[in-house]
Write a structure and sequence with these properties.
This protein is an all-alpha fold. It has nine helices and two strands.
């Protein structure tokens, strides 16, 4: 974990300060929604989409693709586990409009924080600073808390595995900070609440689960693995379509600058020759006089 893998090259000009700004924006949105209306959710949703679009302008194509994968994957999970299975519920039993783009900002915050020069130079130490408190929290929730939290302990184990064997330890270190903060803020403000156990009653759940960053890590894993494939497929599709576009442009004009259908320039039809220009069968023949004209 002390070395930086090729897959974690810096793909954004966003740094630790930008990560804190994005986290701050999401915190403000949660605060507004804690006592807001459905209309407020739509307005903050539109603003969060705009914030995500601005942030992505500072990212490489690969990080943009990763962010969009997170948004798509997380949105599907949100609708399945919140209004569907009700593992956790929002104030209006819906998925607020700011949540899908919010997941994109969460990923960019984690990416930017984990890839900041300060953290990358001290990755082992940063991982210890993040993981030790989460380990103590997970242990407390599993063995000592009045409200047990087995799911949090399981997700913490997932986070450890991602950190050890995942494609980008920097992202998981950043997620440990960003996701934990936002889970604490959202549940404290009452923006959402976790049920006490999963739908089948196998796992107890804290509010929030201690290892929520490990659950979020599955979104990150999907992004880190799928985004390069999507970019490859996109490039392959674009290369196949490019010759078609070139042929269409060439068919619209010939090298001389004329257009198809212009007989004077069309290379297929050719210029129309009159008798005076030596058309076949007419060369050298004198002009015919009208017999009635002297």
């Amino acid at each position: 974990m002390g070395t930086v893998s090729p897959s974690t090259d810096r793909g954004t000009r966003l740094g630790a300060t930008a990560a804190l700004v994005m986290m701050g924006w999401l915190t403000v949105v949660l605060l507004i929604d804690s006592d807001g209306s459905r209309t407020t959710q739509w307005l903050t949703g539109a603003a969060t989409w705009a914030a995500l679009a601005v942030a992505m302008r500072w990212c490489s194509p690969l990080v943009r693709a990763q962010t969009l994968v997170v948004v798509a994957f997380a949105t599907a999970i949100e609708y399945t586990f919140s209004p569907g299975l009700e593992v956790y519920v929002y104030r209006f039993d819906n998925v607020p409009a700011y949540v899908p783009p919010g997941h994109g900002l969460v990923y960019l915050s984690a990416y930017a924080l984990g890839h900041s020069p300060f953290v990358r130079r001290r990755l082992r130490a940063a991982a210890a600073v993040v993981m030790v408190p989460l380990a103590l929290w997970a242990g407390y929730g599993l063995f000592l808390a009045e409200r047990p939290d087995a799911l949090g302990a399981f997700w913490f184990a997932c986070l450890l595995c991602f950190l050890r064997w995942g494609p980008s330890p920097e992202v998981y270190v950043g997620a440990g900070v960003v996701v934990t903060w936002l889970e604490l803020a959202g549940t404290h403000l009452g923006t959402w609440v976790w049920q006490t156990e999963d739908p089948v009653g196998w796992l107890s759940i804290g509010n929030p689960p201690s290892g929520a960053a490990g659950g979020y890590g599955w979104f990150d894993l999907a992004a880190l693995l799928l985004a390069p494939l999507l970019l490859h497929w996109w490039a392959a599709a674009a290369s196949r379509l490019r010759p078609v576009g070139d042929l269409a442009r060439e068919a619209a004009r010939d090298p001389a600058g004329g257009s198809v259908g212009d007989p004077a320039r069309d290379p297929v039809i050719g210029p129309v020759r009159g008798p005076a220009e030596g058309a076949p069968g007419e060369a050298g023949r004198p002009p015919v006089r009208d017999a009635g004209v002297s």
